[in-house]
Amino acid sequence: MPLTVSRDAFRLAEAFTISRGSRTEARVLTVRLERDGARGWGECVPYARYGETLESVAAQIAALPDPVDRTALQDLLPPGAARNAVDCALWDWEAKRAGRRVWELAGLSKPGPQVTAYTLSLDTPENMRAAAARHALRPLLKIKLGTPDDMERLEAVRAGAPEARIIVDANEGWTAEIYADLAPHLNRLGVAMVEQPLPAGEDEMLGEIDRPLPVCADESCHDRASLPGLKGKYDMLNIKLDKTGGLTEALALRAAARDAGYGVMVGCMVGSSLAMAPAVLLAQGAEIVDLDGPLLLAEDREVALRYDAAGVHPPEPALWG
User: Fold this and answer.
1) In the chain, fewer beta carbons within 10 Å around the N or the C end?
2) Cα–Cα distances in Å, from 103 out to 95, 186, 225, 278?
């Protein structure tokens, strides 16, 4: 089953900034395969935080044996972007070959639209207030923070969107002292959840201090092997396909997280509708859905996901699955 890999770039509607830097386009790898008259494809977003580049991920995919199936793939590649693109391409190919939807093959219930967060990137308090006001009618706003002087930004966003439900993503940018100082204000401002306040590997303090609002693991959680290290420190897990290495492990992690008593968030890197499509299946029933990647783009795949007042809709077969 020959795999082909291409690089694609999608312009963002505006610069997207987190505590680690800014970008003006989404650079992705697209994996395609064709066999027995059926075609499948998948997308991944190599992430420098995890030591990935477009080149390194493409090399991982190129080194795979031909043919490869989803079961063997789980041992051939580690969790990460490379395995994600191939795993999702294989799911799509299997569905196309069988003439069925991926959710049927996976034994899942028929999916429906999911309300998704809309992300406000890190900026000056004035600009973040203006952005919050522009998007105040959205049901869920996600704020990118992660600097020592975030209090003004929090106040500004709440002033701009006084009725919106808000979640905060610090992207590992705080210390335990900063988080302890900010936590009461997060409650006061009605923040529903805080994501990865402390750096992965330096988050032991979360098990020792009060957590007045739910804390969600992102960089600290990749796949099921992460679960033992999260106990007592986190209340929720952010499951992303580019971290788990595809839909196969993501579904297994979701089940294990539920069994262990964690809430589930389903998130994404900044990618196209093709990257989000498998995650819509994963997001069914999640407490928080953050699949707004295509909403941040100035351009998308030819067949794109549909977003409306009901949220993000499951993909059409012409896109994926």
Assistant:
1) N
2) 9, 37, 25, 9
